[in-house]
């Protein structure tokens, strides 16, 4: 089969590799689409402790069942599916509650296990046993389904925030994740939305294609003063930081109002992750600060439902569709901030895909 093999920072080669065999308990998926994640860009540029090259990365997968290993029940060949990324140990307290994403020994498709930038993907039996293979209903196309994973992560982040229809919501970061947070907040009828970024181009693109009440350049416009003046000095109800920037995290804690909820959705670089904030704010103003990491199966199901009902319009978020040969070009486009979601088409038979 054809695969994009990552062999170290800034090295990906498209080549023929052996198609994996399907052993008992496993599921082989023919991958039609695999979207590029911000993490894939970071793996490509700097490597990742859980990825040992040579390796196939990619975890935002949509395809169909090509083969079922012996003993696998509940699926049929040809069914459209996606795969939950995190695979837990299956034994710890968090795994027992279904939170495989938070298992201390969590492994993942496209990290430890080979991923989706290839014609076929083998789902390991541990993942099959954890019901990681999720059927895609007919009202969601395979192309749309390729953004279920990142959307499910945004849903995980927002599940902590309890966004209601009279809430004001500020989102830091106008990349694909920030945009998905914006669309989710709007689907929850947030009263006022602010999209903040330091890139004029990203803000301009967002403004042309999506709706927010205010698009603000966080570097230029005296952000804290501006948000306070736009909220009668009371600050926002919800702030979501969807960018890996300390300044944005610190700003979020300065624009948040009483009883406000803050999500640190994006991680910071591991050698530079200490921030400053006045902890009395949390205490006296009853502010809640949440982290969130990856997602679990129920949130994939929520994402499917939102895409299927078109409350989230996947095709607005997917800006590029490229063949597997152009994976590196896709990564470059994302790195330069010229795209929202870039999806890679991994298999040729176009006529089988409804799009
Ligand atoms: Zn992802
Ligand atoms: Zn576990």
Describe this structure in words.
- The chain is of the alpha/beta class and 355 residues long.
- The chain has 2 domains: 2-152 and 295-352, Quinone Oxidoreductase, Chain A, domain 1; 161-291, Rossmann fold.
- The protein has helices at residues 38-46, 93-96, 125-129, 142-145, 148-159, 176-187, 200-209, 223-230, 246-255, 279-284, 297-308, 314-317, 327-335, and strands spanning 2-8, 11-16, 27-35, 60-68, 80-83, 86-87, 107-108, 120-123, 133-135, 168-172, 192-197, 214-217, 236-241, 256-264, 288-291, 318-323, 341-345.
- Helix 10 (279-284) links the parallel strand 14 and strand 15 (288-291).
- The protein is globular, with a radius of gyration of 20 Å.
- The mean pLDDT is 96.
- Bound molecules: zinc ion (2 copies).
- One zinc ion binds at residues 88-89, 91-92, 94-95, 103, 105.
Helix-strand sequence: EEEHEEEHEEHEHHEHEHEHEHEHEHHEHE
Number of beta strands: 17
Q: State which percent range the strand residues make up.
A: 25-35%
Spell out the CATH superfamily of the largest domain: Medium-chain alcohol dehydrogenases, catalytic domain
Radius of gyration: 20 Å
Q: How would a crystallographer describe the biggest sheet?
A: 7 strands, mixed
The N- to C-terminal Cα distance equals 22 Å
Tell the overall outline: globular
């Amino acid at each position: 089969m054809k695969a994009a093999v990552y062999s170290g920072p800034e090295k990906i080669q498209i080549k023929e590799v052996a198609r994996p065999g399907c052993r008992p308990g496993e599921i082989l998926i023919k991958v039609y689409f695999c979207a590029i994640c911000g993490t894939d860009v970071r793996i490509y540029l700097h490597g990742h402790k859980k990825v040992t090259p040579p390796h196939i990365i990619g975890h935002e997968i949509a395809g169909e069942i090509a083969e079922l290993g012996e003993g696998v029940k509940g699926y049929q060949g040809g069914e459209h599916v996606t795969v939950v990324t995190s695979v837990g140990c299956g034994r710890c307290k968090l795994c027992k509650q279904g939170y495989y994403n938070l298992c201390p020994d969590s492994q993942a498709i496209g990290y430890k296990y080979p991923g989706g930038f290839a014609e076929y993907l083998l789902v390991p039996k541990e993942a099959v046993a954890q019901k990681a293979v999720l059927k895609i209903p007919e009202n969601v196309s395979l192309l749309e389904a390729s953004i279920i994973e990142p959307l499910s992560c945004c849903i995980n982040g927002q599940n902590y925030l309890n966004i209601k229809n009279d809430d004001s919501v500020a989102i830091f970061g106008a990349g694909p994740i920030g945009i998905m947070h914006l669309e989710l907040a709007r689907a929850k009828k947030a009263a006022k939305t602010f999209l903040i970024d330091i890139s004029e181009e990203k803000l301009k693109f967002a403004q042309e294609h999506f709706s927010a009440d205010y698009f603000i350049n966080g570097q230029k416009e005296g952000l804290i003063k501006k948000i306070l003046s736009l909220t009668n000095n009371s600050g926002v109800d919800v702030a979501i930081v969807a960018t890996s920037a300390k300044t944005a995290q610190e700003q979020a804690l300065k624009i948040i109002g009483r009883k406000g909820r803050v999500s640190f959705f994006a991680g910071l670089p591991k050698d530079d992750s200490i921030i400053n904030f006045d902890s009395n704010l949390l205490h006296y103003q009853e502010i809640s600060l949440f982290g969130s990491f990856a997602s679990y199966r129920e949130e994939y199901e929520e994402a499917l439902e939102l895409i299927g009902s078109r409350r989230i319009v996947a095709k607005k978020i997917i800006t590029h569709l490229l063949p597997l040969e152009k994976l590196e070009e896709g990564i470059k486009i994302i790195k330069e901030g010229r795209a929202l979601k870039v999806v890679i088409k991994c298999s040729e038979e176009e006529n089988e895909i409804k799009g």
